[in-house]
Amino acid sequence: MTTTPFEPKPPHQKLTALAGTWAGTTLTWLDPSAPPSESRVDASVETLLGGRWIRIAYASTVMEKPHAGEMTVGFHNDAKAHEMTWIDSFHTGTSIMLSTGAPRDDGAVSVLGSYAAGPQRWGWRTVIHQPSSGELVIEAFNIAPSGEEFPAVTTKLTRRA
Predict the structure, then answer these.
(1) Phi and psi dihedrals of 5, rounded to 5?
(2) How many domains, in total, are found in the chain?
(3) Residue 72 domain-assigned?
(4) What does the pLDDT read at residue 64?
(5) What is the domain extent for residue 116?
(6) For residue 83, is it within any domain?
(7) Which residues share a beta bridge with 142?
(8) CA pair distance 25, 42, nearest whole angstrom
(9) 63-72: per-residue pLDDT in tens?
(10) How many whole angstroms separate alpha carbon 141 and alpha carbon 150?
């Protein structure tokens, strides 16, 4: 069986440039009117299947309890959109959040998913951007059914290797 080799596009190359180990801090807002809790976070980013996707794995604490999670992020060539899956031991419970979003002019990955909160669906926007080669920022925002947006998580990482 012959397969066509994968030819990474610029969005794939931008994602695979994030590969490495990272450490930093995470701010988590459980109540948008209260100050966030802060914790140390360690993360690793690895490429998957020849650069088609990346996996971001992280570990920290939330409410003084161990917390871990993983995201897979890629760029769907046909749909011309970023796609992300996200699971973790705190926010997503036992569900897998699927998110998608069109490329942004500034190069950041911005994807939108949603989750059930009782009978309502809330939005969840995740933004991944790299201010410099040694920095990685992952932000998440809760979006109420009314459309109002609140900060949920801000993770600022520094490249270790």
Answers:
(1) -65, 150
(2) 1
(3) yes
(4) 84
(5) 10-159
(6) yes
(7) 124, 150
(8) 8
(9) 888 999 999 9
(10) 5
